[in-house]
UniProtKB/TrEMBL annotation:
Database matches in CDD domains: dTDP_GD_SDR_e
Protein name: dTDP-glucose 4,6-dehydratase
Annotated source species: Candidatus Weimeria bifida
Gene name linked to the record: rfbB
Keyword NAD (UniProt): yes
Ranges of residues in domain NAD(P)-binding: 4-309
Similarity comment: family membership: Belongs to the NAD(P)-dependent epimerase/dehydratase family. dTDP-glucose dehydratase subfamily.
A single GO molecular function term of this UniProt record: dTDP-glucose 4,6-dehydratase activity
Length: 343
């Protein structure tokens, strides 16, 4: 089988490439990535010389290049991870989110219609459901929870989901969608909460917690997400949507303190800063459907996953130190330089 993995030079996409190479060595992986600031070719070094792996530097918005690839390679499955993925960046500049996350998705699906495909899988997010109140721990996101977005990022992802279902209904495209909670693990770009806090703590820099840090996210180790997608693309029925999450809800402040504890750094590094605009309060996934239909269960407990992740960042300093030089420093200065520090 030939599987196109878009966004395979990013965080979850690269972990998925590694997972597939190990789990299904007979399958060929064609990685498509335009290498934005979030994509790193060095991440893919372990598989670059593998004869069942090919890398294509293609932007998913570029219809001609995408069509040429489909014509040359005739893929069986497409898994679309390629996206602008950071909420804070979407608040600064929504346009690129609409272009990549919505238009890019439509280009990929048009190629699937034109050249034929066994399955198009859309990697989506629990953020399409909006947020839940902090005082209702009984409430969870189910697959039929109404879409109700907050940020330009989540709106662009929800729009793409609607388009995917429209292509299924209108053109009969064989599609599936997965909506996962927050991932953590190796190769996550150090602008997201966990790797940012690890990198800053190691450098004894302030740890910028938005507002009071009471917002809750439902954390899943990245390999468990990859395993769920693998089950869906091979076993799920066309037209199905699955929520993915491991019932691991934590407040941001708890995560940051835990990182301080593991790295033996003082809580005095924590700095409460001006809150994110439109900040979602709580995400929480009900994963019953994927468990019942496909037998999926998370394997990595948070206590183990976070230790492995911190250890990975300690062992792979050149990977992230390289990333946080240059352009990233301009981003950091812009986002955090003028952010009001709260008392
Ligand atoms: P990421 O930002 O680390 O990686 C995105 C990758 O897509 C990068 O390699 C980038 O170069 C590539 N890309 C961006 N625009 C492109 C374009 N126009 N053409 C081709 N490639 C392009 O993101 P991630 O955290 O790995 O997320 C992957 C997917 O999973 C996204 O669709 C995201 O919405 C979804 N998701 C992420 C999380 C999470 O916690 N990170 C949770 C649920 C869902
Ligand atoms: P993030 O990793 O950006 O993921 P998402 O917004 O998609 O959930 O942020 C996770 C949580 O951490 C979110 O509530 C915002 C918060 N956060 C901070 O408090 N400080 C930071 O510097 C960052 C990047 C995030």
């Amino acid at each position: 089988m030939k599987i196109i993995v878009t966004g395979g030079a990013g965080f979850i996409g690269s972990n998925f490439v590694f997972y597939e190479r190990k789990k299904h060595p007979e399958d060929e992986i064609l990685c498509v990535d335009s290498l934005t600031y979030a994509g790193n070719l060095s991440t893919l070094e372990p598989v670059m010389n593998d004869d069942k792996f090919k890398f294509f530097k293609i932007d998913i918005r570029d219809r001609d290049s995408v069509y040429r690839l489909f014509e040359d390679e005739k893929p069986d499955i497409v898994v679309n991870f390629a996206a602008e993925s950071h909420v804070d960046r979407s608040i600064e500049n929504p346009t690129i989110f609409l272009e990549t996350n919505i238009i890019g998705t439509s280009v990929l699906m048009d190629a699937c219609r034109k050249y034929g495909i066994k399955r198009y899988h859309q990697v989506s997010t629990d953020e399409v459901y909006g947020d839940l109140p902090l005082d209702r721990p009984d409430m969870f996101f189910h697959e039929d929870t109404p879409i109700h977005t907050s940020s330009p990022y989540s709106t662009s992802k929800a729009s793409a989901d609607l388009l995917v279902m429209a292509y299924h209904r209108t053109y009969g495209l064989p599609v599936t969608i997965s909506r996962c909670s927050n991932n953590y693990g190796p190769y996550q770009f150090p602008e997201k909460l966990i790797p940012l806090m690890i990198a800053n703590a190691l450098a004894d820099k302030p740890l910028p917690v938005y507002g009071e840090g009471k917002n809750v996210r439902d954390w899943l180790y990245v390999e468990d997400h990859c395993k769920a997608i693998d089950l869906i693309i091979r076993n799920a029925k066309d037209g199905e949507t699955y929520n993915i999450g491991g019932h691991n809800e934590m407040k941001n402040i708890e995560i940051v303190k835990l990182i301080c504890d593991y790295l033996d750094k003082p809580y005095s590094l924590i700095e409460h800063v001006e809150d994110r605009k439109g900040h979602d309060m709580r995400y929480a996934i009900d994963p019953t459907k994927i468990h019942n239909d496909l037998g999926w269960l998370p394997e990595t407990a948070f206590a183990d996953g976070i230790k492995k992740t911190i250890q990975w960042y300690l062992d792979n300093k050149p990977w992230w130190e390289n990333i946080i030089s240059g352009d990233y420093m301009n981003y950091y200065e812009k986002m955090y330089g003028n952010r009001k520090v709260l008392d």
